Amino acid sequence: MMIIRFAIIVASIAVGGLSSTPINAQNGPCAANIGPAILVKVVGLKHRLGTVRIRLFGGNPSTYFDKRYALKRVEFVPPKIGNVEYCVPVPRAGTYVVDVRHDANGSGKSDRADGAGASGNPDVSLLDVVLKRKPSASKVQIAVGSGTTVTTIVVKYLSGGGLKPI
Predict the structure, then answer these.
(1) Strand 94-103 versus strand 84-89 pairing type
(2) Mind listing the pLDDT tens digit for each residue in 105-156?
(3) Rounded CA gap, 131 and 124, in Å?
(4) What is the Cα–Cα distance from 139 to 112, expressed in whole angstroms?
(5) Strand boundaries in the chain, DSSP class E
(6) How far is residue 43's CA from residue 137's CA, in Å, rounded to a whole number?
(7) Do 46 and 115 contact (CB within 8 A), yes or no?
(8) Are strands 51-58 and 94-103 parallel, antiparallel or unpaired?
(9) Which of 62, 74, 111, 146 has its CA 20 to 30 A from that of 99?
(10) Residue 1 burial (10 A CB sphere; 0-12, 13-18, 19+)
(11) DSSP reduced 3-state for 82
(12) How many CB atoms lie within 10 A of CB 20?
């Protein structure tokens, strides 16, 4: 039974599916510092409802944040308590970008309730979002070596909703 559950979780992660068991610092390549990998620490969530999506990009900076060029995409239900972390193995040492979206209402669509962030925590204005301007590559890139690289991404929201981030 345990082997079947592990296989389902691994298969779900491999295809970027929904997993309620995030791979975090306690297991996987990040725990053993078997790289290359990025340990993404997500902070600033308004609450623990909905889902968190993490995408990994590499290669040409003009393809960053374009879903067609995501190297990996994972989506999971955040834990009710504790740190929100996810270990993202990368193909090889190099330069990568990570973005995070908190689908706060679990609608599966981007809307005003959702929060977002990117590696490097660039300042993004409402006008940038409306005009679909991307932050400069130099502000969001992460250099990943042969081990585990840790990045903390702060999730920011367009609408306050009266809730304090946790």
Answers:
(1) unpaired
(2) 889 888 888 999 999 999 887 777 778 889 999 999 999 999 999 999 999 9
(3) 11
(4) 25
(5) 18-19, 37-43, 51-58, 72-76, 84-89, 94-103, 115-118, 142-144, 148-154, 156-157
(6) 22
(7) yes
(8) antiparallel
(9) 146
(10) exposed
(11) coil
(12) 11
pTM for this model (two decimals): 0.78
Per the listing, tokens 């970008």 go with 97
Token pair belonging to 159: 């609408």
Both tokens of 42, joined, read 């997500």
User: CB neighbours (10 Å) of residue 49?
Assistant: 15
Whether the Cβ atoms of residue 102 and residue 118 lie closer than 8 Å to each other: no
Rounded distance between C-alpha atoms, residue 16 and residue 74, angstroms:
4
Q: Which residues of 65-94 are buried (b: 16+ CB within 10 A; e: fewer)?
A: beeeebebebbbbbeeeeebbbbbbbeeee
Distance CA 67, CA 65 (A): 6
